[in-house]
Amino acid sequence: MPAIDASDLTKRYGDTLAVDGLSLSVPEGTVYGFLGSNGAGKTTTMRMLTGLSKPTAGTAAVGGAVVTDRAALRPRIGYMPEEPPLYDQATAFEQLEYVGGLRGIDAETARARGEELFEALGLDVGPADRIDDFSKGMRQKVAYAQTVLHDPAVVFLDEPTSGLDPRAARTLRDRIRRLADEGTTVFLSTHILPVVEEAADAVGILYEGSLVAEGSPDELVARAEAGEGGTLEDAFLDVTSSDPTQSGRSDEATENGNGPREESTLDV
Ligand SMILES: Nc1ncnc2c1ncn2[C@@H]1O[C@H](COP(=O)(O)OP(=O)(O)OP(=O)(O)O)[C@@H](O)[C@H]1O
């Protein structure tokens, strides 16, 4: 059974078709790189796969739980959104204790696991160090630690390395790869293509709500016929262009206008 199994997943906001009949299958213990231009529907897809947004149509199961069954889904997944929820007034360890408490993990276990994770991530924090004094990179590492604290089967990461310096980005990328090598499935959305190129087993490219290309990074590069030295960026630009002279699928350029985002988190 795939770790992520989505069939015809669709989300409509009024006239905006944010995700249009998306089907994908991600095997256990692999990293799936999820790419797409701004507004392509990546966050909407992740919100549906993590039970935060109800699909307009279609079905999906993650870690064996259907996404509409939030009670079954919650313990099996970890989700690090683009702007992770952190309490500025808390210390890094208090943050993990709090999140652990929500997950049924006692404070002592959360603290011990936090120590391990922080060490692995190269995050040097003392027990009194508060999150509001942390750099962006330090915050991202705390956010990552709280996402994997309960050892979920499937982890969703939205731009985990954005704003990180090269060393911090590499540390996180290596952790992501290691997670998958240890059996966790990772769904990784990012605009930073080298991260996907190095960490992902498979890549899906979303364009105006539809999956327009899928394969290993090497396959996508080869398919883009980018020639010697082609990169995932060439492949990405090739399948996400609405310019008929630049894209092999230009005649499919959609009319799904990307309307303004409603300021609402209550879109279930
Ligand atoms: N709550 C909402 N209400 C109305 N429209 C929305 C809502 N959330 C997303 N959309 C619309 O759905 C489309 C897809 O948005 P989404 O945020 O999923 O894209 P994305 O690929 O994550 O973009 P980015 O890379 O910029 O984060 C956009 O047209 C967006 O305006």
From TrEMBL:
<dbReference type="InterPro" id="IPR003439">
    <property type="entry name" value="ABC_transporter-like_ATP-bd"/>
</dbReference>
<dbReference type="Pfam" id="PF00005">
    <property type="entry name" value="ABC_tran"/>
</dbReference>
<keyword id="KW-0547">Nucleotide-binding</keyword>
<feature type="region of interest" description="Disordered">
    <location>
        <begin position="225"/>
        <end position="268"/>
    </location>
</feature>
<keyword id="KW-0813">Transport</keyword>
<dbReference type="InterPro" id="IPR027417">
    <property type="entry name" value="P-loop_NTPase"/>
</dbReference>
<protein>
    <submittedName>
        <fullName>ABC transporter ATP-binding protein</fullName>
    </submittedName>
</protein>
<keyword id="KW-0067">ATP-binding</keyword>
<dbReference type="InterPro" id="IPR003593">
    <property type="entry name" value="AAA+_ATPase"/>
</dbReference>
<feature type="compositionally biased region" description="Polar residues">
    <location>
        <begin position="239"/>
        <end position="248"/>
    </location>
</feature>
<dbReference type="GO" id="GO:0005524">
    <property type="term" value="F:ATP binding"/>
</dbReference>
<feature type="domain" description="ABC transporter">
    <location>
        <begin position="4"/>
        <end position="233"/>
    </location>
</feature>
<comment type="similarity">
    <text>Belongs to the ABC transporter superfamily.</text>
</comment>
<dbReference type="InterPro" id="IPR050763">
    <property type="entry name" value="ABC_transporter_ATP-binding"/>
</dbReference>
